[in-house]
Structures are given as structure tokens and as C-alpha cells.
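Quick note —
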Amino acid sequence: MKPAASIDVNSWMAQGQTRKVMDALMSGGQPARFVGGCVRDALLGLPVKDIDIATPETPERVTALIEQAGLRAIPTGIDHGTITAVCDGIPFEITTLRRDVETFGRHARVSYTTDWQEDAARRDLTLNALYCDPDGTVFDPVGGLADLKEGRIRFVGAARSRIEEDVLRLLRFFRFYAYYGNGKADEDAVAACREMAPHIQTLSVERVWKELARLLLALDPAPTLDLMATNGVLSYLLPEVAHRDRLAALMKAEIATETAPDYLRRLATIVDLDKDGARALAARLKFSNADRDQFCRLCDPVIHPDPGVDPKQNRVALYRLGTEIFKELILVGAAQNPDQDWLSLLPLPQTSPVPPFFITGQDVVDLGVPAGREIGDFLERVENWWIAGDFVADRETCLEYLQLLITARS
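Predicted structure written out below.
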């Protein structure tokens, strides 16, 4: 392979942990090159997160070389030639050059090779088939560098064949288009995705949701979701989507408030679900419990903030919801009703904070009420009275009202 570009080595490549791993791999006499996302993002001037490495060394040899250097080697994908080296707690995924002998779904029977071109030919997208020597020299065996510069997301080889080998690549195409695409999407790729869309149902929902969540975190996922919808792909993934048009208003609100993207907020904005519908979607995509609960609160909260009502009612919403959900629902509301001044509610937790409720069950017991259901009833009545009074009453006043209730009972 001929050199195609270069990367400044005084970056992530110069870090001590990276050098230790690369030196260990090359101590056996074979080359080792960075590959995939780290090379791609470095060329774009983006932060490099995960570092992947390719080498002609076999997995067994990789393990021996890593351990000889005093580092930890974990067989995270040994069946596919992948070892994870850990240096000072930082993982480096190392994969032996390989070529596919037979593919079936998410799995493939591979054989190892020393041919970098063969290794590149089995990768999914051209911008993920870029290699880089430790001295910063970049190699581009399948035209990924030009595609990267032009924002062109293209499969390596025939698009349909790549997807047939692994249907998840269909979703990866759209995710990468959302992050790196520019201009009209590659027609061959889109046509293959459209034809293969029904096969999405063969994928595990965990993998589907992982890709969707990452897509939703793109700077602007709206054009990609539109592309997926118009080509019959989105309906196989999220038939619940009813308001893609709201994303533009949501992103405008996120930018105005310097709020980081959130996949649950964005998903809640483009669907129209009550609590039962939200729980059903969360169950289908196997959300974590925390994500499920958050998603339900965003889709069908117990109370809504509202810029059209007086501040007292919004303070009640703030108290019932908590600051985090209150702010999230303001952003969702700004997307659903962009003509209303939802963002004017955002300072409320700072300008008019609501204190926690002062009274506990022990206070009720201390006033002579025996343990039982009555304690909760008294607490609820005092709390409702305190809320109706716009949270003005202090602890002493709340206790006096509680005493009045208990006395009136007897």
C-alpha cells in the first residue's frame, strides 16, 4: 500500500500507554498499524476515543507479546482474532489481519492473512478501512480518504453483499451518515439498505437500540431519520415515530440552552405515547430500567410545566417532577410547541427554588399517631396544604397545621 496522508504523531499516538502497546506488538518483527475510527477521527481533527490496532501477528502471538511486555491480554474476541490489551487501565483492541471465508448474519468464518489489502476488503465502510503506522503515515487501500473528505459514506465493495454478510451494517451506514455524511447519500448504499430493510427484524433488539441511540446523539440526526423514513427503513425500527419534524425545534432549544444531546429526550420528542405506550416501546427495545423510567416520565409525566400558566402552578410542577425532569420537559415542550416561550421557564429552579417537604412520618408519630396508614394520610394532607400555599409555610407552621389535623380527628 502506498502512503496517502499523515497524522501528527504528537497526539494520542505519543501517549505512553499507546507507545507501550505498539512497541510490544512490533517487538516480534511484524508491523502494527492503527485502524478504523481512531485514524478516521484523527484525520478529521476530532477527539480520539477508542484505539484499534491491526497486525499480521496471530492472536496467540499477540497475547504472548503483550504479556511479555508486562501488560494484560484479554481474549475478548478470540474467535475472530481479537485480543484486548490493557495498559494502565486503558483498553486497546488488537485484531489479526483476516479475510472472510464464509459469512452468516452476525458471524463469519475467517482465516488470518498477512495481506493488508485483503483485510481492508472485508471491512464495512471505506472510511473505516484507513490504516496508520506509528510514525503517522496513513494508508488508504479502498478510497476511504477521499470519501471522508467529501462526507461520502460508502460500503467497501458491493453494498448489498456487505449488508447480506451482516445486516447490522445497514444501521451502521445510517449512523455514520448522520455523523460524517455530507450532501446526497450514496445511491447504491441507500438502494441496498432499502432492499434489505425487512431483514432488520433478524437482528437482536439490543444491537438495534444501541445503533439507534448513537444515531440520535448525532449533532443533527433529522436528515438521516428522514432518509430512513423515505426509504422504508425507519418503520422496521421505530414504527412509533410520528413527529420527525419536531427535531429541528428541539435542537434549536438545545443549542440555545447549551444542553447536550440526549437520546431519550430526542426519542420522546418524535413519538406520541402515553405511559403504557412508552413502557411497551421500552420493553420492545429492552431499555435499561433507568432509561425505561426516564422515557416514561418524558412521554407521560405526572404533571406538565406550562409557559401559559402562572408561576405558582409551574412551581408545583417543579416540586412534583424534580429539577432534572422539569428541565427536560421544558425542552420537549419547546419542540412540541415552538411558538410558546418554553425556555422562559428554565431559570425557575434557580430564581424560585422549592424547598423539600419539612415533615416526616416520625413527626406524625411524635404527635401521638400510632404506626399505620394514618401516618401517610396525615403527611399527604399537610403536604397538599403546604403546596396550595405556594410552599411558603416553614417547618414550624407545617407542624402546627399537622397538630390541628390530629386534634380535629379526635
